[in-house]
Amino acid sequence: MGVRADLVWRTVTSPETDWAIAEAAKVWCPQGNKYISESKFKLPRQLHDVLIGRTMEVGGANELRDAMASGLIIGRPCLQRIGLCWGAAGDNITRIIKMEATRLDARVSYLSSSLLAIHELLCFRSRGSQGQAFSNHLRNTFTVTSQSPA
Asked: What is the pTM of this model?
């Protein structure tokens, strides 16, 4: 069914339930065909399947208005979190939310940007308004500055 993902977070007990999807590339290139096809077409379609599956389990879109199906686009050394959730009204309208790409870097001068990337990984499965509010709070706490290494 559907296309294959590079990473799938799912429960292994019966019934199998998908919770999050990730797509990976060797390097980060937002202008590359792989990034464009996976971030604009492939991952959102997979996240839509996850969102539909969770919606059918709870009885409709109104029960999951604040929930988000989470996805990651990973390419060395960056990652970007992408979410798909139900729109404000209607059962067939979804909206996609793309976070800024964050970067993992081994240099101490880029520690704040690396902490944001680690936070994105740790909060990958957070869904709903509380997880989003916490994510925004942490992003505002760690200000990312571009510094050249000394």
From this structure: 0.71
Least confident range of 20-24, 29-33, 90-94: 90-94
CB atoms closer than 10 angstroms to residue 131? 18
Structural domain contains residue 11: yes
Q: Please give, one letter per residue, the 3-state secondary structure of the chain.
A: CCCCCCEEEEECCCCCEEEEEEEEEEECCCCCHHHHHHHHHHHHHHHHHHHHHHHHHHCCHHHHCCCCEEEEEEEECEEEEEEEEECCCCCCCEEEEECCCEECCCCHHHHHHHHHHHHHHHCCCCCHHHHHHHHHHHHHHCCCCCCCCC
pLDDT of residue 90: 66
Whether 1 is in a domain gets the answer no
Q: Could you list the residue range(s) of the whole structural domain that residue 61 is in?
A: 7-141
Q: Is residue 148 part of a domain?
A: no
Count of the separate structural domains present in the chain = 1
Q: Is residue 146 part of a domain?
A: no
